């Protein structure tokens, strides 16, 4: 009777699926739009402060899922950038707005921004604009007695919604009229040439891809560096 | 009414401003509020020039993705500018010529109007996009030609404005932008700096907090390559054979305020010890652009690597940043945004796409009058690369000419100055203006219609 060697209960090596890789790419592109860098250890402190403030204000709990209703944010989230500086909307979720999906854009994004607004308003008392002015068009008077202009610090997505351009473009396309060019339609489309791949470690030609996370490398040395340092580092 | 005209090119990174009637060149300062962790002080706009330590600067920008969203930040910067702290400016007796982003959102545009008239009380003002300002320059001069006599402005041109937030391609016909031909690539100076920060932080030193410093490194070391794959191979060689490799000495902010490229000859050094930060070194920029155009390899202009003595002498106090293929792969994103995974075409393709959507009869003229403006156009080798790439994909029956001014950064401002001062444009300028009285009566709609239709 032969004894089969006991198979160790090793978990299958984690491999990122294409959806996760796309998420990672989107997050990376968003982070390139940031004004300031926020380190990971500050993230927890900020979330704690914001959560405390939020619970004081109402039944909104800033859990990770609440911050990210569409499930687009991995841990090192651009949402943090918004809360830290008190500059809500410094990092807009950098989705390329397509006129064909107005519903998704307004629904998902502004909801998230709303929650961030409330959190930030509490956490940053010096930031008087975000909490109270939100969705208001109050008109205070200035020293001259003229109407003082409202100084909104609205996130870009909200401004885009309010401009009515998404709806306007959508309608014009529906009715097959000539679309009046605007900020959204001027966005350049994709290139006809294929993507060039570079090694994520040294920058030379990235011929090979990591099996697990999909980042590129050029030779064995770079592969070793990649595995030691940042394979799968930014994933849950 | 002796109203002075104040011309303000209100960009996302910097404000270029100056009075139209003065002969002095425009002045620049950063359009943001920065907080220095080291000095624990906040600097509004131009106060940054008084800052001693640029490490760990925290930025608050009024612009977000190129559109003005944070008005409280912008107002603070404008307060310093318009309330006479920087230049003697009396808003009630001043005509303001201010720039706005291309295809600005209508609700943002009304806020511009509100602020200018109701908050500051300017006498009159007009708002136009930076490329429109640039159109008032003598564009044929960029190609070594004179303006056709009798004409005050070229019939058509394509302006490529590559700035901090994004890059726009705008074809113009008789001074007005052809709206269907406008294209926007979401790659700008900010993205390039952030990308460079990430690469450096991974490969060499962690500089994720040092936006200001990495911006300086980018401006000192980066260039646009004309032979991309060849130069990438050169970078793999040993330091002796690798002409592209550069060492950038990082400043330590105690003895030295700015970093510099090691081994660079004195005239080409961007930073000199103790020099005031924030000043544009126009002579250096001019020299580099002119030289880079005439030589084959743009990278050899930035610091001679022949002086071996400098390289081998290790100075223990110095922190040295190695710049190898980052020097040209970072600006490459302008030409191929797909390099970092962005699903957009680069500048040459966008130019072709933009011109193809215009009337067939003027396409030839448009290809022959491409102008590059904006901060990113200062990268050495930019013009040559755009010309080569565009020539490759443009239809062969058209001539391709790409022009760039010695100072692409201030080209728009100079165009606006011509508009405000020269007699040939006087009636046009007057037709564009909206006075405060008119605004108070009719409101923002008047501004919108007048600025859009006027030429």
From TrEMBL, chain A:
Domain HIT-type: 199-231
Gene3D superfamilies, A to Z: 3.30.60.190
Biased composition annotated in UniProt, kind: Low complexity: 123-133
Keywords: Metal-binding, Zinc, Zinc-finger
Chain segments carrying region Disordered: 115-149
Cellular component GO terms, alphabetical: nucleus
GO terms under biological process: chromatin remodeling
One of the record's GO molecular function terms: zinc ion binding
Protein name in the entry: HIT-type domain-containing protein
From TrEMBL, chain B:
CDD domains in UniProt: ASKHA_NBD_Arp6
Domain of life: Eukaryota
Region Disordered: start-end pairs: 256-318
One term under GO cellular component: Swr1 complex
UniProt KW Heme keyword: no
Entry keyword annotation includes Nucleus: yes
Bias (Basic residues) ranges: 265-276
Pfam family, one: Actin
Role this protein plays: Component of the SWR1 complex which mediates the ATP-dependent exchange of histone H2A for the H2A variant HZT1 leading to transcriptional regulation of selected genes by chromatin remodeling. Involved in chromosome stability.
Name by which UniProt lists this protein: Actin-like protein ARP6
């Amino acid at each position: 009777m032969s004894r089969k060697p006991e198979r160790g209960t090793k978990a299958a090596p984690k491999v990122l699926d294409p959806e996760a890789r796309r998420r990672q790419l989107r997050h990376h592109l968003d982070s390139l739009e940031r004004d300031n860098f926020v380190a990971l250890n500050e993230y927890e402190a900020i979330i704690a402060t914001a959560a405390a403030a939020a619970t004081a204000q109402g039944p909104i709990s800033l859990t990770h899922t609440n911050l990210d209703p569409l499930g687009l944010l991995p841990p090192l989230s651009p949402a943090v950038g918004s809360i830290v500086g008190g500059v809500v909307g410094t990092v807009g979720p950098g989705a390329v707005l397509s006129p064909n999906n107005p519903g998704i854009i307004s629904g998902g994004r502004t909801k998230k921004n709303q929650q961030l607004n409330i959190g930030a308003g509490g956490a940053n008392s010096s930031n008087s604009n975000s909490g109270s002015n939100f969705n208001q068009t109050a008109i205070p008077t200035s020293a001259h007695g003229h109407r003082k202009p409202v100084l909104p610090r609205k996130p870009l997505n909200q401004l885009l919604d309010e401009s009515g351009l998404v709806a306007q473009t959508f309608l014009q396309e529906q009715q097959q009229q000539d679309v009046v060019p605007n900020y959204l339609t001027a966005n350049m489309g994709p290139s006809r040439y294929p993507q060039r791949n570079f090694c994520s470690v040294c920058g030379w030609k990235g011929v090979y891809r990591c099996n697990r996370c999909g980042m590129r490398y050029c030779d064995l040395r770079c592969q070793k560096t990649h595995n030691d340092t940042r394979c799968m580092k930014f994933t849950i | 009414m002796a109203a002075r005209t104040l011309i303000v090119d209100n960009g996302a990174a910097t404000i270029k401003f100056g009075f139209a009637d003065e002969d002095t060149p425009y002045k620049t300062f950063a359009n943001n509020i920065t907080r220095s962790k080291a000095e624990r002080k906040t600097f509004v706009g131009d106060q940054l020039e008084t800052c001693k330590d640029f490490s760990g600067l925290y930025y608050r920008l009024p612009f977000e993705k190129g559109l003005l969203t944070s008005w409280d930040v912008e107002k603070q910067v404008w307060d310093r500018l318009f309330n006479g702290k920087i230049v003697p400016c009396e808003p009630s007796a001043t005509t303001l010529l201010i720039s706005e982003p291309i295809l600005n959102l209508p609700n943002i545009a009304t806020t511009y109007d509100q602020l200018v008239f109701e908050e500051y009380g300017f006498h009159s003002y007009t708002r136009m996009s930076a490329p429109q300002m640039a159109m008032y320059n003598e564009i044929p001069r960029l190609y070594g030609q004179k303006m056709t006599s009798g004409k005050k402005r070229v019939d058509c041109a394509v302006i490529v404005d590559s700035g901090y937030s994004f890059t726009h391609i705008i074809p113009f016909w008789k001074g007005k932008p052809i709206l269907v031909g406008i294209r926007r690539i979401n790659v700008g100076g900010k993205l390039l700096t952030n990308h460079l920060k990430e690469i450096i932080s991974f490969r060499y030193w962690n500089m994720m907090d040092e936006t200001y410093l990495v911006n300086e490194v980018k401006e000192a070391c980066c260039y646009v390559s004309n032979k991309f794959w060849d130069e990438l191979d050169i970078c793999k060689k040993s330091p002796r054979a690798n002409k592209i490799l550069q060492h950038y000495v990082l400043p330590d902010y105690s003895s030295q305020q700015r970093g510099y490229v090691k081994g660079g000859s004195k005239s080409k050094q961007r930073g000199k010890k103790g020099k005031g930060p924030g000043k544009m070194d126009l002579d250096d920029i001019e020299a580099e652009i002119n030289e880079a155009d005439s030589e084959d390899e743009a990278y050899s202009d930035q610091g001679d690597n022949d002086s071996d003595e400098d390289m081998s002498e290790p100075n223990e106090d110095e922190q040295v940043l190695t710049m190898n293929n980052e020097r040209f792969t970072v600006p490459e994103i302008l030409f191929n945004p797909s390099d970092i995974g962005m699903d957009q075409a680069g500048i040459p393709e966008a130019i072709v796409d933009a011109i193809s959507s215009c009337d067939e009869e003027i396409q030839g003229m448009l290809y022959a009058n491409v102008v590059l403006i904006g901060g990113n156009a200062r990268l050495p080798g930019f013009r040559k690369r755009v010309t080569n790439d565009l020539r490759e994909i443009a239809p062969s029956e058209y001539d391709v000419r790409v022009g760039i001014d010695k100072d692409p950064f201030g080209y728009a401002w100079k165009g606006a100055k011509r508009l405000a001062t020269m007699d040939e444009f006087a009636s046009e300028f007057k037709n564009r203006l909206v006075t405060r009285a008119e605004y108070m009566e009719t409101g923002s709609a008047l501004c919108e219609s007048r600025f859009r239709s006027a030429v």
